[in-house]
Amino acid sequence: MRLLLLKTGASFDQVIAEQGDFEQLFAAGLVGSDVELVVWDARSDQPLPVLDDIQGVLITGSHAMVTDREPWSERLQPWLRQLAEQRMPLLGVCYGHQLLAQALGGEAGNHPRGPEVGTVEIRLTEAGRQDPLFAGLPERFPVHVTHTQSALQLPPGAEVLARNDYEPYQAFRLGDSVWGVQFHPEFNAAVTRVYLAQQAERLAELGQDPDGLQAQVTETAHSGSLLGRFAELCRQRAHAL
Fold this sequence. Notes:
Rossmann fold
């Protein structure tokens, strides 16, 4: 089975040197899923990829902002709408989550409470507990986050799958084939510690405690399982067609 990874940015140099860039982190999260991950850099000016032999699409995070309206990001939106209409399985992560929300009729923008960085707990909604991607996971579990912008408004008809006190839309689903997660299932604790260290000065200026946030970092096995779960849903969808 082949999944397409839309790479919308690059990680910090330290993460790349120690664990690889986003594509390596996603590939690590898919180990054991018998998946070939095809990487396409969405920031390039190459023609949009042909998906004849692709069973699902993953969209990475980015240090860019959706509201920057970069030309490469803007050209993805009508294409993503087309894929959603065709019921191609889509999973957007962080920037990808916000981009899907914007492309499908919602709105992305700066979160009014500022950045959310570190390991935080999310809560599944009733819809989340019944969702095929999240079903069987605990009602509450930790996830890794690093974002300043959020999906401020979800697309019409989208269901909220998970939230916490900071972020009302930690995960959503639209229809039966589009998911967005604000958190990072591909991150591990070491990656999150680097993101906290890189943003420590800014967080302190905003009244947050970087050392306290570092102390709360933990591994997030339930969150990490979502990549393999998505691959399995794509496999089931492909076999059903």
